[in-house]
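Practice record 12: protein with glutathione.
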Amino acid sequence: MPVLYSFRRCPYAIRSRYIIALLGTSVHLREVILKSKPSELLSLGGRSSVPQLVDVDGVRYPESLDIIFWALACSDDKKVVNELWPADSVQRNRIKAWIDYNDHFFKHWLDRYKYANRYPEYSEDYYRKKGELFLSRLDKRLSAKKFLLGEQVSLADIAVFPFIRQFVAVNQKWFDSTQYHNVRRWLASFVNSEMFNSVVMVKYPAWQAGQKNTLYPAY
Ligand SMILES: N[C@@H](CCC(=O)N[C@@H](CS)C(=O)NCC(=O)O)C(=O)O
């Protein structure tokens, strides 16, 4: 069985677990405590960030997007695969553009907004405004369509929403007072879902060598 090193609250791990659950791919989940990573993860070498996946042949997938594309390639459920990652290159480029913006621009401001006291060069308000540039782009797009690519969920939505969830959680009251109604509706469709609450965000104790395997998703 492939092994997935994961950390429950990590947005990169959340997006990987969400896709794995949607596709019904089975893995053995190893919940990691970032401050005391297991030697099995450290001994893979290189950067020991989570999520990481090691497949049945021992091939390692060290980044969330590697894991997601591994799961898409493994899946027999071609209908869901095609919805998440359509064959059409224009659609693919759109998905990549949303993810790139999220990972390389928005994440930078999200970290500063979340931990504004660690980045005293600017105020929390300044960092929030930088992050809001993405929220307003998302909101504009979602005013015309249910999801980022259209009427169906795609990889773009799933790769991005865990980061928006974190941004919102910094100050939920502020977010509730904003005009980002479409983002609110879109985010709620994920975070209030059965999939998210009863599968993706289930709490598991930290993994220890020798313990009974944790099958994920647990069905
Ligand atoms: N680019 C990586 C980023 C993963 C990442 O930064 N994960 C964080 C947790 S949210 C982590 O493992 N931090 C601890 C570390 O880097 O050692 C991915 O897409 O998987």
